[in-house]
Amino acid sequence: MKFLGLLLANFKRHRLRTTLTILSIIVAFILFGYLAAIRRAFQMGASVAGADRLVTRHKISIIQLLPISYKEQMEQIPGVAAVTHASWFGGIYKDPKNFFAQMPVIPNEYLKMYPEFILPKQQFEAWTETRTGVVAGRYLADRFGWRIGDKIPIQSTIWRPKNGGDMWTFDLVGIYDGRFKETDNTQFLFRYDYFDENRAYGQGMVGWYYIRVKDPAHAADVARAIDDHFANSPYETKTETEKAFVKGFADQVGNIGAIVTAILTAVFFTILLVAGNTMAQAVRERVSELGVMKAIGFTDGQLLAFILAESCIIAFLGGAIGLGLAWLLVSMGDPTHGALPIFFFPPRDLFIGAVCVVLLGIVAGLLPAVQAMRLNTVEALRRE
Amino acid sequence: MADTLVKMNGVEKVFHRGGEDVHVLHALDLEIPRGDFLALMGPSGSGKSTLLNLLAGLDRPTSGTIGVDGQRIDQMSGRALAKWRARHVGFVFQFYNLLPVLSAERNIELPLLLTSLSRSERKKHVDAVLRIVGLEHRASHTPRTLSGGEQQRVGIARAIVNDPTLVLADEPTGDLDRKTGDGILDLLLALNRDHGKTVVMVTHDPHAASHASRILYLLDGQLSSEMAA
Question: When you count CB atoms within 10 A of the terminal residue's CB, does the N or C end of chain B come out lower?
Fold first, then answer.
């Protein structure tokens, strides 16, 4: 502690340079936090996808439909515990910018398949009693200020109603919450029977199936058995784990994880050069002073620790403020207002950020610190 | 008779420069009694500063032995030598070499940071030496706001704050005008006379040397003559 005053005094030397270095570190860590949140958002819950859930879709593409008759057949396949289905509705609420997933499902089956969706019993009963009933995630309801009892009009882009026009009107009967932070609470779920009866075409078809397996250890065998069962049929299937399915969905945009990692690597390398250059300059300018400190009796090890401590303080100040601001900005919510429903700063990435702060401090200061340590005292004292 | 504080025997110093060996000190023998005020004089390149650096433990002899207060400093490791300097040596530099970001009192406190003294004890020591050098009223000033003479007083205060065995001064008045320089020399003299400090001063200036109790002349790395000031 007694050296702290001496350490901090050195920051007065080139305030502008120190401030700019700290600012650049702040920006880097804000970027780190934001990109970490975006990466997690693009994984869209893959990390919490059930290990015992499979998704079966059309072998060609997810936009090709599958017959509803497959459900009964799948239930007969050994290892399958439960089957339900969902479809992509793709409607517009007021404005195309208000993007969110709308899916017709079978209420009791879907909620059993997704126990992480918490819906009060009373609201569930209302859903089963109301054919036009819809259940929305908490985030979605809050986003549009929906309350139970509201009528929500959705303009269809794929599934027109058979009685003409392009509007579907639903009654909001429930709002579900997510059991986990990563649980997707932006879904808009309505009844498949109402949808199937009222669509202009495509009756008896569904988008994809969710399958719960009895034993997650045999998930791959079950997936293979399902695909083998429907091989050479008019609707061949592709079955994969829910995690792979979600990841594949996200990868339609591109390999976000790799892109984010590449950006962050470039950012941190640049910051390392900036901070390293600041420390190298700080040592170069103080050769004579470091010589005096050695002459006074500071040991080589003390000087090494001294320079490293300076570097770590700069990294800590920039890193802590940067990570704090990133946390704050990310907490303010999804910047796209809907495209990234799961948007938060993952604690794991916060920890990685903290480790990066320490590493940045040490790596940026190491070379200048070793130079300071190796200074020849007599030669250093001759420098002006 | 005063006991011997510094004893150098057969000290040689050879620098390797541009592929050649440059002999700076030749088989030098020197004894400095405790409480002495010794001035080292000689032309440029005669080895005065090299001798001072060896005495301070900032450099090592190529051969020969150096003993200070019974300790063979030529045999010490770098770390031990640093600790020894912190405890036994006070260095006064020609250009003061104060840390510009620290106030006068924080500059003076610097050597004490290497001791186990508490903050209040360190302050007591700093206040005491500020009184000795007559700068109590400038304690909180940074070097930039002090005159050359005041900066050198701070430098001297820093050199003596840890009560060193040996005060070494390298051209302490070299950057000062005559009047200010005299003030510094009087201060060194007072440290020697009133506080019993052993002082070794390198100087080009015969007037400065005249303040010492003894003058040694170096020529081509050898002691050429000695005289009482």
Answer: N
Q: Tell me phi and psi for residue B47, to 5 degrees.
A: 110, 10
Measured in degrees and rounded to the nearest 5, phi and psi for residue A155 equal -85, 125
Name which of A13, A288, A296 is nearest B110 (Cβ-Cβ). A296
pLDDT reported for residue A232: 92
Helix (H) / strand (E) element for B5: namely: strand B4-17
The number of C-beta contacts closer than 8 angstroms across A and B is 66
What ipTM does this complex have?
Answer: 0.90
Cβ B79–A300 below 8 Å, yes or no? Answer: yes
Q: Please answer yes or no on whether B97 and A289 come within 8 Å at the CB atom.
A: yes
Summarised one tens digit per residue, pLDDT across range B14-27 is 998 888 888 999 99
The share of chain A scoring above pLDDT 90, in percent, equals 63
CA angle A186, A64, A152 (to 5 degrees): 35
Mean pLDDT in residue range A182-194 = 91
Q: Is any Cβ of chain A less than 8 angstroms from the Cβ of B202?
A: no
Task: Show residues of chain B in contact with A12, CB under 8 Å.
Answer: 101
Whether B82 sits inside 8 A of A289 (CB atoms) is no
User: B113 — contact with chain A (CB < 8 Å)?
Assistant: yes
Contact check, Cβ <8 Å, B102/A6: yes
Q: How far is CA B203 from the centre of its chain?
A: 12
- Which residues in B lie closer than 8 A to residue A301 (C-beta atoms)? 79
- Residue A254's pLDDT band, with cuts at 50, 70 and 90, is low
What's the pLDDT tens digit per position in A66-82?
A: 999 999 999 999 999 99
The label of the residue with tokens 């009482």 reads B228
Could you tell me which residue, B224 or A90, shows the higher pLDDT? A90
- pTM, 2 dp: 0.72
- Tens digits of residue pLDDT in B160-211: 999 898 999 998 988 888 888 898 899 889 889 988 899 999 998 899 999 9
Q: What integer pLDDT is reported at residue A47 of this predicted model?
A: 55
The mean pLDDT of B105-117, rounded to a whole number, is 94
CA distance A209 to A45: 18
- Distance separating alpha carbons of residues A133 and A105, to the nearest angstrom: 11
Instruction: Give A230-244 pLDDT, tens digit per residue.
Output: 999 999 999 998 888
Contact list, B83 vs chain A (CB under 8 Å): 297, 299
- CB proximity under 8 Å: A 10-49 to B: 10, 12-13
Pick among A290, A381, A382, A384 to test the B interface (most B CBs inside 10 A): A381
Contact B97 A3 (CB under 8 A): no
**Alpha helices, DSSP H, located in A218-255:** 219-229, 242-250
Measured between CA atoms, the residue of chain B closest to residue A290 is B99
* CB of B80 closer than 8 Å to CB of B43: no
Q: Based on the number of CB atoms within 10 Å of its own CB, is B17 exposed (0-12), middle (13-18) or buried (19 or more)? A: exposed
Element of type H or E holding B50: helix B48-56
- B212 — phi, psi (to 5°)? -80, 165
